[in-house]
Specification:
The protein is an all-alpha fold and 449 residues long. The chain has one domain (2-375): Sodium/glucose cotransporter (Up-down Bundle), CATH 1.20.1730. The protein is built from 19 helices and no strands.
């Protein structure tokens, strides 16, 4: 019976993704990335909250709640504050001529555009891979006779197919469906347990203090969200500035409530003495414990979260690959928009699946992607604000990437990576700024003499 419910949810989800009115289907790449018609506040709110919620976040944050108690609230708090920060920059997002974060930071400079596009692509591929892992961990217990890797590959291929076909129009529709599933099937049962569950007599599982690196990485969402490509695209796709602002605010609040509920689910299991070998399976255990007959409905909500976030991050990765890289390199530069989107889809799907099968860890992929994004793109944005030349920005970014790769590949156990890597790049940016300023003053003095 549970398998039938999950299959019905899958068919509903795929049908929602594939069914897009002819007037909304894309002709140009801009149609694909932004959709043909402006979006209202509800779809913006659903898109923002569901992109960041995801199955990886729900499963992972429940696991962190099981391990670290309420320390885990740093993540939803940071994301909510990040959406508030994004509202401040709404006009800049909407007024920019480009589509992606690379367009915003690199402009017309080819080398810098390729570098920032590559960084964005790597990060989004890791986030897509994390959703692949989450999908496997959630559904494998319900389909024990099917290999988990094969199940993940088939389901994710189906999701990629409608993203390829209809772009943001499909992603927006599945976001709205996911939002209804999560707010209707996931949050209310958790709230009910929190209000009515009686304490057990089992000894509680002791909570650990969250490591400083993990705390900082989760807190970096306050910086990641305003720089996220998905935020940039949603801001441009909104019908008006007002719709965008209201959508961002409600999206951030929705994320906070949903993830706080998942953290409580893991927290309550540890408080009640439930022993888990894999904390990332805390959420399914919570529902099978408290709702043994109807728990599959919550699993459907988590599945919807995974599938919708998978299509959201896949969409961002495809847009980044097609717009920031393939459009700028031969032979793809002379191909049509549809051909570039198809090639980008194949590259993103195959690379993400390979990463998921190799690492098979949700948190590792998410945090690694977040660290790369913060360490490279945020200091680069600071350098952009300081009006450094694109040549200088390319040099500082490339130097940072080379040093990070050298340290990570050498096996050196560096403590404080969450601070060390971004600080290194920021120091390079500031040093370049003062050097550029000194050179400008020297040139001006020479002209006056």
């Amino acid at each position: 019976m549970d398998q039938l419910v999950l299959l019905a949810a899958l068919l509903l989800f795929l049908g929602c993704g594939f069914f897009v009115r002819k007037s909304k289907r894309f002709v140009t790449f801009r149609d694909y990335a932004l959709s043909k018609h402006g979006q209202g506040w509800f779809f913006i709110a659903a898109g923002i909250s569901m992109t960041f919620v995801g199955g990886a976040a729900t499963l992972n944050m429940a696991g962190l709640g099981y391990q670290y108690s309420w320390w885990s609230l740093v993540d939803p708090s940071a994301v909510f504050l990040g959406t508030l920060a994004a509202i401040i920059f709404l006009r800049r997002y909407r007024d920019g001529a480009g589509i992606t974060i690379s367009d915003l930071l690199a402009g017309a400079d080819l080398r810098l555009a390729l570098l920032t596009g590559s960084v964005s692509l790597v990060v989004y591929v890791m986030l897509v891979g994390a959703q692949f892992v989450a999908l496997s961990k959630l559904l494998s217990p319900f389909f024990p006779n099917i290999d988990g890797s094969l199940l993940t590959a088939l389901l994710s291929a189906a999701v990629f197919s409608y993203v390829l076909t209809n772009g943001l129009s499909s992603v927006t529709q599945t976001d709205a469906l996911q939002y209804c599933f999560v707010t209707g099937l996931l949050v209310p049962p958790i709230v009910y347990v929190a209000l009515t569950a009686a304490p057990t007599h089992e000894p509680p599982i002791p909570f650990a203090t969250m490591p400083a690196d993990l705390f900082l990485l989760l807190g970096f969402s306050i910086l990641f969200v305003p720089m996220s490509q998905d935020v940039t695209i949603r801001a441009k796709a909104a019908r008006t500035y007002g719709h965008a602002a209201v959508g961002f605010l409600l999206g951030g609040l929705s994320y906070f409530v949903i993830v706080a509920g998942c953290i409580y689910a893991g927290f309550s299991l540890a408080r009640d003495g439930s022993v888990l070998t894999d904390p990332e399976k805390a959420l399914p255990l919570f529902f099978s414990t408290h709702y043994p007959r109807a728990g599959v409905l919550a699993i459907v909500a988590v599945f919807a979260a995974i599938a919708s976030t998978l299509d959201g991050w896949a969409f961002s990765a495809i847009v980044s690959c097609a717009n920031d890289i393939l459009k700028r390199v031969p032979p793809f530069a002379t191909r049509g928009d549809r051909a570039r989107v198809l090639c980008a889809s194949v590259l993103v799907y195959s690379t993400s699946l390979a990463l998921a099968l190799y690492f098979n860890k949700i948190l590792a992929l998410i945090l690694t992607g977040l660290l790369i994004y913060v360490a490279v793109l945020l200091p680069l944005a600071a350098g952009n604000a300081l009006r450094l030349t694109t040549r200088t920005l390319f040099g500082t970014s490339l130097t940072t990437i080379v040093l990070i790769v050298a340290v990570e590949s050498s096996g050196i156990q560096l403590t404080g990576k969450a601070i060390a890597y971004p600080s290194l790049h920021l120091i390079l940016v500031l040093a370049s700024y003062f050097a550029q300023r000194r050179k400008t003053h020297a040139d001006l003095r020479r002209k006056l003499d």
